[in-house]
UniProtKB/TrEMBL annotation, chain A:
GO terms for biological process: DNA replication initiation; mitotic DNA replication checkpoint signaling. GO terms for cellular component: nuclear origin of replication recognition complex. This is Origin recognition complex subunit 1. Residues 46-174 form the BAH domain. The lineage of its organism: Eukaryota, Metazoa, Chordata, Craniata, Vertebrata.
TrEMBL record, chain B:
SUPFAM superfamilies: P-loop containing nucleoside triphosphate hydrolases (SSF52540). Residues 65-226 form the AAA+ ATPase domain. This is Origin recognition complex subunit 4. CDD domains: AAA. The gene is ORC4. GO terms for biological process: DNA replication initiation. One of its GO terms (molecular function) is ATP binding. InterPro entries: AAA+_ATPase, AAA_16, ORC4, ORC4_C, P-loop_NTPase. Component of the origin recognition complex (ORC) that binds origins of replication. Keywords: ATP-binding, DNA replication, DNA-binding, Nucleotide-binding, Nucleus. GO terms for cellular component: cytoplasm; nuclear origin of replication recognition complex. It is found in: Nucleus. Belongs to the ORC4 family.
Length: 659, 440
């Protein structure tokens, strides 16, 4: 895989500073006082010390993670540099449901205290980018957002800090490192307390920034309890939430300024209508709207077992923070995609209720891309909203799923129409199934295709092996299930006779078991029923004969009617074809041979014989309808003719005409 | 030019100018009917199909219900005419007028999905919405369009009518991506769409891939005309008659009476019967009537039965027999030699040398009027026949074999040769005799 990097990479050098002290005797690790960072070839050195707020290399360059540094440690050789951090979330990272819990619109620069279990608080010190830069006045509400007993009404505390340094937006690695001034935590601390700019929210300060006033909500928390104590603050204190919170208050915290920029990839939509769509007026219209395949039913009947299996699979993976693959097969119209969407809906609900950790759901469809490699592009775009080329996207995804990243939530990826992602080397499939096996990936891949033995049929061994044996197959619906589906969709709208429903479901179950087909036939039957009466409102229930008519329309072959409606010469030509086939004892003849028969037949019928040009035209017309199969027309008289219908059908159709 | 003709006939000037004007108007009206495929007031003989399609599209337009439908019928059966009639009627409804976005695609023009997507974007007027970013790569285009459709919902966005002419050709696109996506939108809660396919293939559903097929609603409207000959005659009469709002009532009556008597004439009925037997579609009928109409002028202000007979003769003429009339005697002799070879070897292929031998035998034994030709001249004549595609080379690798020994087949029927000989101007008698003799 070729790796491309759009930006010039700068090599940074990290050096321990200060005197090492023994951190853990058994593990032979040492703690350090501070870390010096410099960029290769440049003089400037930045020092970070525990207690400061730092930026950490994230999934994309523009939005690094924010955390508070707690401790540095490394091994004897000083090669491995590690750091313990306390994570903070930026507003954009806070899940939507948590934002709602806040009960107010937060300031875009606020950060939130993160107390999730799912996140490793030990990071590689070399992923530190810079200190948190800031600008203007920033207000920080620290909610332990990931606690279950979250209470929006009483924020733990809030503070407001004045910061002097200013950093342009769109922080990149270089600018972050070069533009920030090292800030002495002690100095800012005294500055803060001396200048009396640290305020509790309910103590209104005259110097308060207007903007922060707008976003503020009076706190009911007792001020004395949470009053920050500057003296108490010190590096390395990480015992318990209470103390942590107090520590945080004492240090100025900076945020990357994120101004809402104009969206880069704005998508237009279909223009909206001037007159709103009319709502269904009578029972039949209501029934038709409910029976449309697109209408989302209240529940998915008849797939309870499959639902439960998939739910358990995904839920367990999300709970454990691990990854896995699942292969789901079934003929079209058996509810595969619908069931998975239902599962995800339920899981989202559960995660909103805080029963399971949050996860992201991404969906790609092999049919909705032009090339298998576009899968990478689409996944990356849905994950990070970046738009890159396929090769670059593959490289970025590879990095994302193989490197340990902090704060990673589980990603659930649905790959619909898997068989279209097949390439000769199968590298797309390989990657899709390989990523979940990585330790840090936290990726659950659900794949859908039509054939049950797809892994054995088209995948090479290493791909099939990674897909694993978690398989599920959706059986075609039986007639009882189909009947239940229609009944549940109709949901007490009385539009069908019981027998009519049974007829439809039995017929469809016997043919394909495709629920879409079943719904379409029912919809057509309601139309026929509506048209059968003079006035639409007086139409009664959909009866057997309406359903019969709809079934007839959809399933009967039109060849026989087409032959009956063909012109006389065309019918004669078909008879000539059969006569010639019988003479030759073959199912194939050239036009020239057939034409001799045609001429003889027209003499028998007492018709004026037609010229060869006309005969060819007749033959081509039959070929265009695919009643005949023809060779390329440049062969002229030598083109071979075959029947696309059985001889019996032709004779039957023609006999009925003559009678 | 026709004005000069008018003057030659001794008519009063004023009358002949008005006569000329009326004839001109008649030509205009009828030509528009026959050539521009003007929509009729009401489609004839397909009332139930018309009602079905109109109802379907009306529901999409008014209720925002997504649908898909195929209109199947042989060429010239009026599929496009039906659809255009329905669209015209639909757009006359006030609520609908500003609320639908028709998108016309043709399988012969949009030969792959990339072109089709660009065309859809263009027709939906989406190309300028986000600057110049739209016409990027194929993949971007697809993602863009799908997102646009996904953003819509049933009640608020305008219904899009996708009209896919030559639907079967879209099924040959790679993976049937376009069809899958359009039909998928029509089956999911996105912007309301109606996918209308027009095709002449009866087996079109077998072309669809199983996933695409499952998403198609299986509504098919078959246009198979079960037109009887009486209706066909009526149709001819109404096609040739002038409309009610013709300015001059005298001329109107005169013309329409003339048409009425024309359609009752036995020879005309025979001609039309022959056409009806050959094909029922209106396009070939229009061609015939157009030819007859072109013989109408101010000096001959009516269609006579002879016009129709002549037009029919032009329509029915065998194109290959026509080519044979233009051949030289030498080329004709070669054709006859080939015919004899076909008789002798029962349709097995022949080469130039065999034909040449046959021709030499004829010259030695029977010919009185034709002199010997040099071999290069005969080769030239042979090559000319090949260029006219009256004979066709059988083996594909032409380079390896010498010209004289390439295997050929004759693309003419015996009847065509005999017919051409009968009409050939001043054909030598010995050549004719040679052609009619059983063996060369």
């Amino acid at each position: 895989m070729v790796r491309y990097f759009t930006r010039l990479r700068m090599r940074r050098i990290y050096k321990w500073g200060g005197r090492p002290y023994i951190f853990d005797r058994k593990l032979k690790s040492y703690g350090f006082e501070y870390l010096n960072m410099s960029v290769e070839g440049q003089e400037a050195v930045t020092t970070v010390t525990p207690g400061q707020y730092i930026l950490i290399e994230g999934n994309d360059d523009e939005y690094p993670f924010v955390a508070k540094l707690l401790k540095f440690f490394g091994d004897e050789s000083h090669k491995q540099k590690k750091a313990l951090v306390q994570w903070f979330l930026r507003l954009s990272e806070v899940p939507q449901n948590k934002k709602l819990l806040l009960g107010r619109s937060p300031h875009p620069q606020e950060i939130f205290y993160y107390l999730g279990r799912a996140c490793d608080n030990e990071i590689n010190a070399e992923s530190i980018l810079a200190q948190c830069p800031g600008c203007g006045i920033i207000k920080i509400y620290c909610y332990p957002l990931f606690l279950h007993n979250f209470d929006a009404e009483t924020p733990q505390w809030a503070l407001e800090v004045k910061v002097e340094s200013c950093v342009p937006r769109n922080m990149t690695r270089q600018t972050a490192l070069l533009n920030t001034r090292p800030l002495n935590p002690e100095a800012s601390c005294t500055n803060v307390s001396g200048g009396n700019t640290v305020q509790l929210t309910n103590k209104v300060s005259p110097a308060r920034h207007k903007k922060s006033l707008e976003h503020e909500k009076p706190s009911k928390a007792p001020p004395s309890q949470n009053l920050p104590n500057p003296d108490d603050a010190g590096p390395g204190s990480n015992s318990g939430l209470e103390k942590e919170l107090r520590n945080s208050v004492c240090f100025p915290c900076f945020l990357i300024q994120v101004t809402p920029s104009t969206p880069r990839h704005a998508t237009p939509s279909i223009p909206s209508r001037t007159v709103p769509a009319r709502q269904p007026g009578n029972i039949l219209e209501e029934a038709r709207a409910r029976l449309h395949v697109s209408s989302v039913p209240e529940s998915l009947p008849c797939r309870e077992q499959e639902f439960q299996d998939i739910y358990n699979f995904v839920e367990s993976k999300v709970m454990d923070g691990t990854g896995g693959c699942m292969y789901i097969s079934g003929v079209p119209g058996t509810g595969k995609t619908a069931t998975i969407h239902e599962v995800i809906r339920c899981l989202q609900h559960a995660s909103d209720m805080d029963e399971i950790p949050t996860f992201r759901f991404i969906e790609i469809n092999g049919m909705k891309m032009t090339d298998p490699h576009q899968a990478y592009v689409q996944i990356l775009q849905k994950l990070t909203d970046q738009k890159v080329t396929a090769d670059h996207a593959a490289a970025l995804l590879e990095k994302r799923f193989s490197n340990p990243a902090p704060k990673k939530e589980t990603t659930v990826l649905l790959v619909d129409e898997l068989d279209l992602l097949w390439t000769r080397k199968q590298n797309v499939m390989y990657n899709l199934f390989d990523w979940p096996t990585r330790r840090h990936a936290r990726l659950v891949v659900l794949t859908i295709a039509n054939t049950m033995d797809l892994p054995e049929r088209i995948m090479i061994n290493r791909v099939a092996s990674r897909l694993g044996l978690t398989r599920m197959s959706f059986q075609p619906y039986s007639f009882k299930q189909l009947q239940q589906i229609i009944t549940s969709r109709l949901n007490k709208v009385k539009a069908f006779e019981e027998d009519a429903l049974q007829l439809v479901s039995r017929k469809v179950a016997a043919l394909s078991g495709d629920a879409r087909r079943c719904l379409d036939i029912c919809r057509r039957a309601t139309e026929i029923c509506e048209h059968s009466t003079s006035h639409p409102s007086s139409a009664g229930l959909v009866r057997m004969n309406h359903v019969m008519e709809a079934l007839d329309e959809m399933f009967s072959s039109s060849y026989i009617t087409a032959i009956r409606c063909a012109s006389l010469q065309e019918q004669l030509f078909l008879r000539a074809v059969i006569a010639e086939f019988r003479r030759l004892g073959l199912e194939e003849a050239t036009f020239q041979q057939v034409f001799v028969q045609h001429r003889a037949l027209s003499r028998v019928e007492g018709l004026q014989p037609i010229s060869v040009s006309e005969g060819l035209a007749v033959c081509q017309r039959l070929g265009a309808c695919r009643l005949l199969l023809l060779e390329a027309s440049r062969l002229d008289m030598l083109q071979r003719v075959r029947l696309n219908v059985s001889q019996d059908d032709v004779l039957y159709a023609l006999k009925a005409v003559r009678d | 030019m026709s004005k000069r003709k008018v003057k030659e006939t001794h008519m009063p000037v004023g009358e002949c100018i008005s006569q000329y004007g009326y004839i001109f108007q008649v030509q205009m009206i009828l030509r528009e009917r026959f050539c521009h495929q003007r929509l009729p007031e009401k489609p004839v003989g397909m009332e139930s199909q018309h009602k079905h399609l109109l109802e379907l599209l009306r529901r999409t337009a008014v209720h925002g219900e997504s649908n898909s439908v195929l209109i199947v019928g042989p060429r010239g059966s009026g599929k496009t005419m039906l659809l255009n009639c329905v669209l015209r009627e639909l757009l006359e409804v006030k609520d609908v007028n500003k609320n639908v976005l028709p998108v016309h695609l043709n399988g012969l023009l949009q030969t792959d999905d990339r072109i089709a997507l660009k065309e859809i974007t263009r027709q939906l007027n989406l190309e300028n919405v986000v600057g110049d970013k739209v016409f990027g790569s194929f993949a971007e285009n697809l993602a863009f369009l799908l997102e646009a459709l996904k953003k819509g919902d049933r009640s608020s966005s305008r219904p899009v009518l996708f009209i896919l002419d030559e639907f079967d050709l879209f099924a040959h696109h790679k993976n049937q991506t376009l069809l899958y996506n359009l039909l998928d939108v029509s089956q999911s809660a996105q912007a309301p769409v109606a996918v209308i396919g027009l095709t002449c293939r009866l087996d079109v559903l077998e072309l669809l891939e199983k996933r695409v097929k499952s998403r198609f609603s299986h509504r098919q409207i078959h246009l198979l005309s079960s037109l009887s000959f009486i209706q066909y005659l009526d149709n001819v009469r109404s096609q040739l008659s002038l409309p009610q709002d013709f300015p001059d009532t005298n001329f109107y009556d005169e013309w329409n009476d003339g048409i009425k008597t024309l359609c009752e004439d036995q020879s005309v009925v025979d001609v039309l019967q022959r056409h009806y037997n050959s094909s029922k579609d209106f396009r070939s009928l229009h061609l015939l009537l157009m030819l007859a109409l072109s013989r109408v002028s101010a000096s001959k202000p009516a269609i006579k039965p002879t016009d129709l007979l002549e037009a029919s003769r032009v329509c029915m003429v065998d194109s290959k027999a026509n080519i044979l009339h233009g051949l030289s005697i030498l080329e004709l002799c070669l054709i006859i030699a080939m015919k004899h070879l076909n008789d002798i070897y029962e349709g097995e292929p022949f080469n130039f040398q065999m034909v040449h031998n046959e021709f030499k035998k004829f010259l030695q034994r029977k010919s009185h009027s034709i002199h010997n030709f040099d071999k290069p001249v005969v080769i030239k004549a042979f090559e000319h026949l090949q260029q006219l595609e009256l004979i066709k080379s059988m083996d594909s690798s032409t380079a390896k074999i010498q010209k004289e020994y390439q295997l050929m087949k004759l693309l003419l029927d015996h009847s065509q040769i005999m017919e051409a000989l009968q009409k050939y101007p001043q054909c030598p008698t010995d050549v004719k005799q040679w052609a009619m003799s059983a063996f060369g």
